Amino acid sequence: MVTSDEHDLSGTTPELDRRRFVGSLGLVAGLAAVSTLPVDRAAAAPRPPGGGYPFRLGIASGDPTPDGVVLWTRLAPEPFERFGGMPATAVGVEWKLATHPSMRGVVRSGRALAMPRLAHSVHVEVDGLEPDREYYYQFKYRGDESDVGRTRTAPLPGTRLNSFSFAFASCQAWQDGYYSAYRHLAREDLDLVVHLGDYVYEGDIAPDGGYRDRWVPPAARPAPQSLQQWRARYALYKTDPDLQRAHARFPWIVTWDDHEVVNDYAADQSQYTGDISTLRANAYQAYYEHQPLRARSIPRGEHVRLYRRVSFGNLAKFHVIDGRQYRDIPPCGWGEAPACEAAYDPEISMLGQRQERWLYDGLERSRARWDVLANNVMMARLDHDGAAGEKLWHDAWDGFPAARNRLTWRFANADVRNPVLITGDWHSSFVNDIKLNFDRPDSRVVATEFVGTSISSNGDIPVYGPYYGPMIKYNPHIKFFEGDKRGYVRCTVTPDQWRTDLRMVRTVSRPDAPAYTLASFVVEDGKPGAVRL
Question: Which domain does 415 fall in, by range?
Answer without folding.
Answer: 170-532
